[in-house]
Amino acid sequence: MGKVHISESPIDAWGEITSLLQSSRRIGALVTFMGVVREISEGKEVERLFYDHYPEMASNALNRIRKEAISRFGLIDATIIHRVGEAGIGDLVLLVIVASEHRSEAFKAVEWIVDEVKKEAAIWKKEYFKDGEYRWVEPERSDLDERIE
Amino acid sequence: MVTIRYYGWIAERLGRRQDEINYTGPLRDLLRLVGEDIELNVRERKVFVALNHNSIKDLDVDVGEDDIVAIFPAFSGG
Questions:
Q1: Would you kindly state where each structural domain of chain B is located, as residue ranges?
Q2: How far does A61 lie from chain B, in Å, by closest CA?
Q3: Which of B12, B53, B75 sits opposite A56 (nearest CB)?
């Protein structure tokens, strides 16, 4: 079964994929996006990330996005899981899985969901660098302009 | 009591995650109580506000007993 979850623990991607895959025999395409913590950000070496979040608003947004994606793209089901708290290099921090009858709508839906999560989920990313500095990540200007319209 | 929650760099700058204030009145004045520049930052869209878990732009709305106000920067998850 698809779901929405905000997790302080590591995400079991394969477990989630298997769960969604086994939820319907109508599934003909299953597309996955995995957002992973990378070592270099804007030319600096990252040590770790911290995600702050507003639980009620973040959860409401992820549920709305999942529901709208299913309706908009005619999906069979979808799962969205966002990690919060501390995350190290290589950790999976955003998992989006969509299941549909055909691949075309699944590819489109995954991209749309990831964009919406970045714009609409009340989650804030802080990067800690290996040189001891840190910064709160600013959203892409285009995301911000779209959100405040 | 009105609960005021802070997130992201705002919580870090204020040095706290939450306040509880005995207050009834316009949201705009409550924001000024929290910090001189908060209301200005909201007007300039550098900071955003939610009332009872819903984003809100109308700062003239009244808040009071049991309301939860959240003050936060633009989202940057993913």
A1: 2-73
A2: 10
A3: B53
User: From the candidates A33, A50, A57, A145, which should be mutated to test the interface with B, based on the most B CB atoms within 10 A?
Assistant: A57
Question: CATH number for the domain including A135?
Answer: 3.90.1170.40
**How many angstroms separate the most distant Cα atoms in chain A?**
51
The CATH superfamily assigned to B2-73 is Beta-grasp domain (3.10.20.30)
Q: Give residue-wise pLDDT tens across range B29-74.
A: 999 998 878 888 888 888 999 999 999 999 999 999 999 999 999 9
Beta bridge partners of A55: none
Which of A51, A56, A147 lies nearest to residue B77, judging by beta carbons?
A: A51
Output helix, strand, coil percentages for chain B, rounded to the nearest 5: 30, 35, 35
Q: How far apart are CA B42 and CA A4, in angstroms?
A: 30
pLDDT 10s digits, A40-82: 999 999 999 999 999 999 999 999 999 999 999 999 999 999 9
Q: What is residue A41's DSSP assignment?
A: E
The secondary structure element, H or E, covering residue A30 is strand A29-36
The two beta strands, B68-73 and B2-6, are parallel
Residue B56 Cα, gap to closest chain A Cα (Å): 11
Confidence of residue A115 (pLDDT cuts 50, 70, 90): very high
